[in-house]
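Hello, quick one for you while I still have it in my head. A protein chain has come my way and I'm curious about its shape. Can you walk me through what the tokens say about the fold? No rush at all, and the record is pasted right below.
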Amino acid sequence: MSHSTPPDVIRDIERIAPDLVARAAHYPSSILADVAGRRGALSSRIAPLSPTMRLAGPALTIDVRPGDNLMIHAAMALAKPGDVLVIDGKGDESCALMGEIMVSQCMAIGIAGIVVYGAVRDTEAIRALGFPMYAIGANPNGPTKLVPGRVNWPVSVGGVTVNPGDLVVADADGVVVVEPAKVPAVLQLAEKKLADETARIDGIRSGKQLRPTWLDTALRKAGVLAEGETL
């Protein structure tokens, strides 16, 4: 019996509904990471070129060999408006995988942003364009376009496995990834947590609640305070 081998380039993926992406975009990455079980946050090495950059959208995943961007070009040819390119560049900083020309093409396509586990270049121009770009550094060296890779396969980026179609949300704090099946529940939890944190901050600033209500209970559970004892 013969078995067909999945292609290296998977053209079609299931994407999160645009209304869920729009809702997720309203929440800080920290809120989403907390309610998703404090997992899914990429390494802090992957940072925005400007702290004002934000993005949200389904992941279009790209696996490249260090220093080669052939498969990024292939992915861009398949990308749909709203996609986020998530590129496993193996953390290589010896050359840039993308620059102003490719970012300009991404903007024209309608891509929502880019997350690169590697280096980029033309950073001043990209900042001026205002396009959301997250990377681990910059390098003026250009890449090759010779080595095959994969598009829309699972990738490892900043210590996190990212699957095609995963929800990607990023802001000044970094990048968080949520599995599609968990997104509706995570958004419900995020709404409550944001409301709770807003109320907590209001309590601090007004002087009405200057310490957490849970503190004494947590200290007793940890054995710092005896039962019935308070600070």
